[in-house]
Amino acid sequence: MKSRSTLKHIAEHLHLSISTVSRALKDHPDIAAHTKQKVRELAELLEYEPNAFAIQLRTNASKVIGVIVPEISGYFYHSFIAGLEDEARSWGYSLMILQSGNDPEVEAANLRLCRMNRAAGILVASTSGTKDLAPFERTDAAGIPVVFFDKVPESRQFPKVSMADAEAGFLGADTLIRKGRKRILALFGDHALSITRKRLKAFQGTFQRHAADGHLTIRHARSQQEARQITFEALADQTYNAVFAMSDEILAGAMKAIMQHRLRIPEDIGVLAISTGLIPGLYEPEISYIETSGETLGKRSFEILHKCMSKATPLGEFLVPSTLVEKGSV
Questions:
Q1: What does DSSP assign to residue 287?
Q2: What pLDDT does residue 1 have?
Q3: pLDDT digits (tens, 9 = 90+) for 296-314
């Protein structure tokens, strides 16, 4: 196994002091240009890499960002991480990605791991059971800023970055009503999550104001399988002319049930979802959706966290706009 090159190795080869080699690599003005060139050439030849952990201990500055999510299963978090990593890399940061499994205790353990590794900052999509924010408060007090994203707590003491969930809920109901779809089965996620409550409140409020003569059935599903079962049973029991799905996971489950019932889209039933856009494109006709861009959310989340790491802590909730993408399903 090849041994790791160090400043000492370079210094011994060139008969220089370790401090001279270190300053040459940092382009210190006191070091002659020809010495800098020799040091850099040898460092490249020996594939020298600075010891990031030693630098962190010496400067108390980390270039690692902790990212805690319930799970990396859907396309949304994949696209979020892609957008976040792209932005973070341009500033010289790398990511440490951890999954909580939607368990508050695992989430707290992941938070401790980020502190132990001296993360420069932490981004968190909280679990549905996260109630105690004391661990996050301790982390912030220790000088490691915390920013919540996507699935955020009600508390106003931390910066939050999320999709414009109320806007997405409004667009969903408004679109279906404008298309004459007023007998709607609306499928939402875990009611314990603020993202669900915001989308539901806007959707339900819009329907009540503008389609009082219609019929709206609200159901909650926490998985694709649960969404399939709920949809299958509901379609067997009553006649609907539209299904609304709050997320890609719920949409996939609902579509299985619709296909099991051999319903034609949009002739027999309309379908509309809140989505990143990947899952709707897998069907024919493609499913109309309110776009929620994980990539845009990732870039915006880094922007807010970077401000916090620069000691310019912005408080409040920052929203990424939602847009309607019309296909052929409504």
A1: P
A2: 36
A3: 999 999 999 999 998 877 7
% of the chain at pLDDT higher than 90? 66
Classify domain 165-292 by CATH number: 3.40.50.2300
If one counts every other C-beta atom within 10 angstroms of the C-beta of residue 297, the result is: 26
- What are the structure tokens assigned to 158, written together? 């931390």
CATH 3.40.50.2300, the chain: domain bounds: 62-162+295-320, 165-292
Q: How far is CA 194 from the centre of its chain?
A: 15
Closest to 290 in 3D by CA, of 263, 232, 330: 330
List of residues 6+ apart from 238 with CB closer than 8 A: 185, 217
Rounded Cα gap, residues 19 and 8, in angstroms: 9
Domain 62-162+295-320 is in which class? alpha beta
Quick one: pLDDT at residue 56? 54
* Overall pTM > 0.85: no
